[in-house]
């Protein structure tokens, strides 16, 4: 592992991942966004892209398991087009991570992160007429898949997708679990094919799974002790700042 990172950066990566896991356990989202925003400050993007893969896959698998497999099947039937599009375009987009210049990739990651966070903070809820649902599913699925393949996160656009379809809040978690779970498997397979996840970097990713799970456990235990909505907004503010910083790095180099 020391061939990849010095001990100081390794400890930094473990700490950032623990925080990301804590937020995931407390509010159910934002792990990959926090990891890629925090880790990329000091660590090269290709290694960051590899590092998030296994923590994201394991955490999303746990979310599906908690929601229940019965609900997962229902979600799969109802949102099959969106899920298929997300999975296909995650596989496609992962193949370009190593081909895009780092500064360009920072901007590609930062713009949608900042935009989606500001939309949610503003409380804007898109309304999609029933006749336009199919077109909306195509656009949202493709966008979410591309963002997922490049940044390892398709959570924020998925949340907006479900809100736009007026999905009951009680069903949103189980549907998100299915979308995140299947998408993370595609992310894993895509980065195996792209070479981002290889015989060296997979060990780094596997190591980061440990603080991610520990953080999720603490977040799940402590999450009920504070105002969920306020904590969610604070998380979005931090992510918006992180997104703006990614854009700054992309522009200034």
Write a short abstract of this structure.
With about 250 residues, the protein is mainly α. It has helices at about 5-25, 30-40, 45-50, 55-65, 70-80, 80-95, 100-120, 135-150, 155-165, 170-195, 200-220, 230-250.
Topology:
Layout: H1 7-27, H2 31-39, H3 45-51, H4 53-67, H5 69-78, H6 80-94, H7 102-122, H8 133-151, H9 155-164, H10 169-194, H11 201-222, H12 228-252
Helix pairs in contact: 1-2, 1-11, 2-12, 4-5, 4-10, 4-11, 5-10, 6-8, 6-10, 7-12, 8-9, 9-10
Folded structure, characterized:
The protein is mainly alpha-helical. It has helices at residues 7-27, 31-39, 45-51, 53-67, 69-78, 80-94, 102-122, 133-151, 155-164, 169-194, 201-222, 228-252. Helices cover 79% and strands 0% of the residues. Helix 1 (7-27) packs antiparallel against helix 2 (31-39) and helix 1 (7-27) packs across helix 11 (201-222).
């Amino acid at each position: 592992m020391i061939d990849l990172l010095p001990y100081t950066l390794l400890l930094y990566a473990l700490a950032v991942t623990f925080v990301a896991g804590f937020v995931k356990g407390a509010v159910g989202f934002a792990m990959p966004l926090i990891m890629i925003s925090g880790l990329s400050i000091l660590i090269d993007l290709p290694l960051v892209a590899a590092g998030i893969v296994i923590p994201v896959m394991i955490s999303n698998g746990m979310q599906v398991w908690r929601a229940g497999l019965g609900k997962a099947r229902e979600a799969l039937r109802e949102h099959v087009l969106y899920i298929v599009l997300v999975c296909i375009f995650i596989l496609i987009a992962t193949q370009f991570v190593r081909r895009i210049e780092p500064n360009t990739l920072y901007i590609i990651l930062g713009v949608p992160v900042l935009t989606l966070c500001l939309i949610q903070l503003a409380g804007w809820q898109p309304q999609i007429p029933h006749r336009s649902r199919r077109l909306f599913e195509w656009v949202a699925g493709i966008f979410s898949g591309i963002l997922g393949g490049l940044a390892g996160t398709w959570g924020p656009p998925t949340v907006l997708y479900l809100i736009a379809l007026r999905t009951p809040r009680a069903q949103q978690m189980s549907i998100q679990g299915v979308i995140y779970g299947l998408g993370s498997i595609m992310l894993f397979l895509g980065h195996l094919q792209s070479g981002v996840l290889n015989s060296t970097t997979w060990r780094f990713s596997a190591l980061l799974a440990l603080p991610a799970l520990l953080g999720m456990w603490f977040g799940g235990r402590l999450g009920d002790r504070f105002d969920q909505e306020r904590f969610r907004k604070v998380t979005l503010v931090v992510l918006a700042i992180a997104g703006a910083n990614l854009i700054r790095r992309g522009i200034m180099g």
